[in-house]
Specification:
6 copies of one chain form a homohexamer. Chain A is an alpha+beta fold. Chain A is about 30% helix and about 25% strand. The interface between B and D is medium-sized, with 14 and 18 residues. Chains A, B, C, D, E, F: This is 4-oxalocrotonate tautomerase-like domain-containing protein.
């Protein structure tokens, strides 16, 4: 622990790498967690697997 | 909020579109939630990623 | 399957009862799922366990 | 219920088949659950979707 | 990894202790995972937070 | 989106407040997400609901 699961649109590896680094750093600095204890999972989903306001992401015109 | 995560077998987009619409409508009518606050995630998994009664979906004969 | 997990603020039982009924009905009508196959989990969280826009729910003035 | 969701690296079907069988057996023997009530979901993620200690799995040298 | 999340009715500690031991053992024997890498989370929910077949657990007569 | 779910031991509100602020900031700066789109859920669990290496948290002597 802690285990962090992120539901998001697909992102390039370099952005996920940087985000995981910063989130881990936040746990270390704010909670005093050991770095190795922090795990981050990226659960990526595209516009055919997600809806907001009852409209699928792939159908939105103002995404 | 609310965030709705659905674990299911893969389904065609038009069925997910209709389901997301109806689930969102249910939140609006029953909870009084604003439509835009409802997000639905479809986490689709096939018969090689799911088991029931100790038997993988892909091995079932009476699915 | 399907398994539906809802992350939401705490709600009265009668609202959850009605919502579960309507969500289940949506699966039966849209997917043709058997009613008994649909399970709904309510994962309720209060304003001390949720943040939006970097602000905890309990600190919001315009919730 | 119970619903078991496993976040893991991808594994061959035969290993998942055996694991699901053993986990289900554990519920039946320890909790007295009916076999058919146990569902297991494998949420598989590769080294580009998971980080530990702030380092993506695909960047680790000592995985 | 692996991370195991179990959605279940509340159970006594001694049953969860035995179940966690057996699930961990299954990963070690079937996947060859190191014991320390296996984490199990029990997400317990009662009959007011779960529905099956559109009926809340607390309303069922044949639970 | 993104939706961030954190499985962790219980923590004081002020630590969660600071963590949510920093995680949200990371999404804004790394992904260019709008601040309001980021939601963080804290799913807190104690030593009777979590096991590592087959041992419940409440039974560990070297936690």
């Amino acid at each position: 622990m802690p285990i962090v699961t992120i539901q998001q649109f697909p992102r390039p590896l370099e952005q996920k790498r940087e985000l995981a680094r910063r989130i881990t750093e936040a746990f270390v600095e704010v909670y005093g967690t050991k770095e190795e204890a922090v795990q981050v999972f990226f659960s990526e989903i595209d516009g055919e697997g997600w809806a907001k306001g009852g409209v699928m992401g792939c159908d939105k015109t103002d995404k």
